[in-house]
TrEMBL record:
It comes from the Bacteria. It comes from Sulfurimonas xiamenensis. Residues 127-226 bind DNA. Keywords: DNA-binding, Phosphoprotein, Transcription, Transcription regulation, Two-component regulatory system. Coiled coil: none annotated. Residues 3-116 form the Response regulatory domain. The keyword Phosphoprotein applies. GO terms for molecular function: phosphorelay response regulator activity; transcription cis-regulatory region binding. This is Response regulator transcription factor. SMART domains: REC, Trans_reg_C. Residues 127-226 form the OmpR/PhoB-type domain. PANTHER family: REGULATOR OF RPOS (PTHR48111:SF22).
């Protein structure tokens, strides 16, 4: 359901548009008073605003300016004013469209959906790109992939690497690794662990001597970077 705030003091026109647009899954809430409208829009989420310019108590252009200062909501100006200056000012302020009265409600419906489609695409472009996971652990298959490619580990290497994947981004102490990996004897010296870590690095690092994925955190343990 598309939710729209209409600021229109012509109650008859507002009623006609409300009934017509309801057939297209568009819910209109009309406010005849611009001050009430500004308060309501601050408290309620709307997808779009339809704004008349000739309003009681406050000029529509001033309402437009106040809305654009506080909200990032598309605005369609719906006005009987024929002065081109009003249209230019409204669009320069940041209104998304200007629809001169009288107009066919069908045209308004099309413009609403066109603007919302465009805004939706713009929001998608602004979304930060999801960071691609380098290492993926599949516990059911007991497999680990790097950049989508299967990496062949020995059982002990897999056990350590799977623990590191589960705690990706966090430092895992040598003690934790020895306690959580059944193929490693917890009484063994950490030097044995260091040997296995080095073997893992030869399989996942471009330069094992200067690792960028499986890091040694001096005095603490190891960390698999995100």
């Amino acid at each position: 359901m598309i939710k729209i705030a209409m600021i229109e003091d012509d109650a008859e026109l507002a009623n006609v548009l409300t009934q017509y647009l309801a057939k297209y899954n568009i819910e209109i809430t009309n406010y005849e008073d611009p001050f009430l409208a500004l308060s309501a829009i601050a408290l309620n989420p709307y997808d779009l605003i339809i704004l008349d310019l000739t309003l009681p108590g406050m000029d529509g252009l001033e309402v437009c300016k106040k809305l654009l200062l506080k909200h990032n909501i598309p605005i369609i100006i719906s006005s009987a004013r024929s002065d081109i200056t009003d249209k230019v000012i409204a669009l320069e302020l940041g209104a998304d469209d200007y629809l001169p009265k009288p107009y066919d409600p069908r045209e308004l419906e099309v413009r609403i959906k066109t603007i919302l489609r465009r805004c939706s695409k713009e929001l998608e472009l602004l979304k930060p790109e999801a960071k691609k996971e380098i290492f993926i652990l599949d516990e059911k298959k007991q497999e680990i992939t790097k950049d989508g490619e299967f990496v062949k580990f020995t059982p002990a290497e897999y056990e350590i690497m799977s623990l590191m994947c589960k705690r990706k981004g966090f430092v895992v102490s040598r003690y934790d690794i020895l306690q959580n990996c059944s193929l490693l004897n917890s009484s063994e010296e950490s030097g044995t662990l260091a040997v296995i870590i080095n073997r893992i690095r030869t399989k996942i690092e471009q330069d094992p001597k200067n690792p960028k994925y499986l890091l040694t955190i001096r005095g603490s343990g190891y960390k698999l970077v995100k």
